[in-house]
Amino acid sequence: MTHETGVAIVTGSGQGIGQGIALRLAEDGLDIALFDLPSNKEKLDRVAEEISKKGRKVICLFGDVSNEEDVSNLVEKTVNELGSLDVMVANAGIVFHSLVTETNVSDWDTLFSVNVRGTMLCYKHAGIQMITQGKGGRIIGAASVASKIGQPYASAYVASKFAIRGLTQSAAMELGKYGITVNAYAPGPIDTEFLGKFDEFHTSLSGQSKGSFLEGLKTKNCTKSIGEPKDVANLVSFLASKSSEFITGQSIVVDGGAVFD
């Protein structure tokens, strides 16, 4: 794979999959703009320190992806401080669990504002910047295996990830003529704090011991294992590279072989 020297933004990069992606793209030779909530400053600073050790430029920016001004400022500050925007990774997302019959509208709206509006705003402002630059680019979003098949107790999360698939396809159709590809990664179970929330909910529901839900997930894929952030980062590395120039509008599953397209 070949990567141009360039600049990537990774939202939600203080931990988990976002952190793994940021570190991998730095290893690939890109300078990185990290973005997360102000409450994750210590985590973001630690990621920035690791990236600096790899010899890449890095900046830490803070805000809320659901706020358009924050996302617009993110892109503007990245370009001003690092010189361009070549890869946008709209990774930030949240989850809550509830039966659809018990779902609180406020919780639903909050989740959609982060997962869907936040991703749209990243696509929008990255697209504007990349069109202005006139040299193409890579826009990459966070879908999920939940964007391919429904899950009980997660209707809001599932619906938001289905929305990201549709958004990704439409944006790919609109931006392709500018040399901009738009794709999404669709992880299955990845060993992160985020996955721990699923285990905590389902084990409390079943009365089983902590960790038993995760162990059960291992029986449902071909590799009989839980993935790691690097498994998703490897895919994003490819999607961010010049080698992926003929791939766009896709939401690609990374789950050890449980959900098949």
From TrEMBL:
<keyword id="KW-0521">NADP</keyword>
<dbReference type="GO" id="GO:0048038">
    <property type="term" value="F:quinone binding"/>
</dbReference>
<dbReference type="GO" id="GO:0006633">
    <property type="term" value="P:fatty acid biosynthetic process"/>
</dbReference>
<dbReference type="InterPro" id="IPR002347">
    <property type="entry name" value="SDR_fam"/>
</dbReference>
<protein>
    <submittedName>
        <fullName>NAD-binding protein</fullName>
    </submittedName>
</protein>
<dbReference type="InterPro" id="IPR020904">
    <property type="entry name" value="Sc_DH/Rdtase_CS"/>
</dbReference>
<comment type="similarity">
    <text>Belongs to the short-chain dehydrogenases/reductases (SDR) family.</text>
</comment>
<dbReference type="InterPro" id="IPR036291">
    <property type="entry name" value="NAD(P)-bd_dom_sf"/>
</dbReference>
<dbReference type="Pfam" id="PF13561">
    <property type="entry name" value="adh_short_C2"/>
</dbReference>
<dbReference type="GO" id="GO:0016616">
    <property type="term" value="F:oxidoreductase activity, acting on the CH-OH group of donors, NAD or NADP as acceptor"/>
</dbReference>
